[in-house]
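Rather than argue in generalities, we have chosen a single entry, letters for residues, whole numbers for local backbone shapes, without further comment.
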Amino acid sequence: MSTAIEIENDVEDGIDAEPMRRRFTVEEFQRMGEAGIFAPDERVELIGGEIIQMTPIGPRHMESVFALEDYLRPILGPEVRVSIQMPVQLPESQPQPDLTLFRQSDRRSGELPSPSACLLVVEVGDSTVDFDRNRKRLDYAQSGTEYWVIDLPGQMIVVHLEPESGDYRQVNEYRRRTSFHSPALGGREVRVDDVLLPA
């Protein structure tokens, strides 16, 4: 039986000073959705085992996604599908990128797109730019896919290439009146002003 002095020392040593977080698997997260634990209009993602409540989509965010879709659709072949704000299956996460390009031939019927099927994932960031550029970057790097962040406050596109060991080896910022080449688009040149909405 512990004495008062032993209990006091335990507290000083930090035992039980901080509660443990409960992490969820992708399967548990999916079962929670199927069980109706989340409200029908509730926007949540599983990021690194943690359930994250997504911020509401504002008009400028929505129009930026539409503009990106309008830009990409005419340059894609019939084997590439465009997914708008639909889940992607990662090992410890189930994010909902604003836009995903994936090869239909690499996707199993009835399943979410997997990392092997994804060519490109894009997040449009307004109030969530820091989260998109830091926390989500690590998840998408693990998937091995090219990743863009459309930074609305900064008026630029942040392009992440060469995923390796859980992060990207290349991260470059492209502002207006500049362009970059996208491996996911077959090396095509992308002009930033063709993707961003007018300021």
